[in-house]
From TrEMBL:
Keywords: Oxidoreductase. The keyword Electron transport does not apply. It comes from Hyalangium rubrum. This is SDR family NAD(P)-dependent oxidoreductase. InterPro entries: NAD(P)-bd_dom_sf, SDR_fam. The keyword Oxidoreductase applies. Belongs to the short-chain dehydrogenases/reductases (SDR) family. Pfam families: adh_short. The lineage of its organism: Bacteria, Pseudomonadati, Myxococcota, Myxococcia, Myxococcales.
Length: 271
């Protein structure tokens, strides 16, 4: 039996992926999200399809909660697990966490790294998949402003924070060559991510009608999960849907990579 840890499991892509993987009898799904009631309902749905699942509630909106979540996962997950980083936030306004960081910078970048650290230290992981975003090519990082949202934008902040995590996971792949790491753009998917109110929200809801259903994306991710290997040891490949592509130029910029690396290490060390 292999454990498959799925964050952001209660909604959207995560919910659909859990159901798509329910019939994989060799895997036990470890479902992570904030909403315990929705997680419990999903566990029941997975079991009704013949799968195995457990719920591990956890909140990635603060580093202390993320640290505690990582420890809870260590207690229930066996070595050789796959971690799917799927939880994400597209904020409409600047909000700070209890630690003083912009919320999306925490949810999309710092907190997943904090949670993951416990699993890495305990040698629980064999593979890590990051559900990222094609919009990382628009990302920019300002070490003085991005962590606290001093450069907040209703669009750019999502791009910036997704870029940060993608770069951090490239460093994780280099530091842990025995772990297979992939970062991917899952497709343009019809979920409530980035939902807005007012006229902009109405226009966005109209546009989303033409986007692909979460179930279609989930089937794609399940096919990728079934691959024997994603990346060469010490590397993290970049996939756009199911096709490998070159990393966007901003993700290859050494000054950006160094700034994200140094700032992330400092913030996590002092958190």
């Amino acid at each position: 039996m292999a454990d498959l840890i799925l964050t952001g499991a209660s909604r959207g892509i995560g919910h659909s992926l859990a159901l798509a993987l329910a019939e994989r009898r060799d895997d036990r799904l470890v479902l992570v999200a904030r909403d315990r009631a929705r997680l419990d309902a999903l566990v029941t749905a997975v079991e009704q399809k013949g799968g195995r699942a457990i719920a591990v509630p956890g909140d990635l909106s603060s580093l202390s909660e993320a640290r505690a979540l990582g420890q809870r996962l260590v207690e229930v997950v066996t070595p050789g697990a796959t971690l799917i980083h799927n939880a994400g936030l597209w904020p409409s306004k600047r909000v700070l966490t209890p630690e003083g960081f912009e919320t999306a910078f925490t949810v999309n970048h710092l907190a997943p790294l904090m949670m993951q650290k416990a699993l890495l230290d305990a040698e629980r992981l064999r593979r890590i998949m990051v559900v990222s975003a094609g919009l990382i090519f628009k990302g920019r990082f300002d070490a003085a402003r991005t962590p606290t949202g001093g450069d907040f934008s209703g669009i750019r902040t999502y791009c910036n924070t997704k870029l940060c995590f993608a770069l951090a996971m490239r460093d994780i792949a280099a530091a842990y060559p025995a772990i297979d790491v992939v970062v991917l753009h899952p497709g343009v998917v019809r979920t409530d991510l980035g939902a807005r109110s007012g006229p902009i929200g109405w226009l966005l809801s109209l546009a989303k009608r033409s986007w692909e259903a979460p179930e279609v994306c989930a089937a794609r991710l399940a096919r990728i999960l079934a691959r024997e290997r994603w990346s060469s040891p010490g590397e993290a490949r970049w996939l756009v849907e199911e096709a490998e592509q070159s990393w966007p130029p901003v993700a290859e910029d050494e000054a950006t990579r160094r700034a994200v690396r140094d700032t992330t290490a400092r913030l996590l060390t002092t958190a």
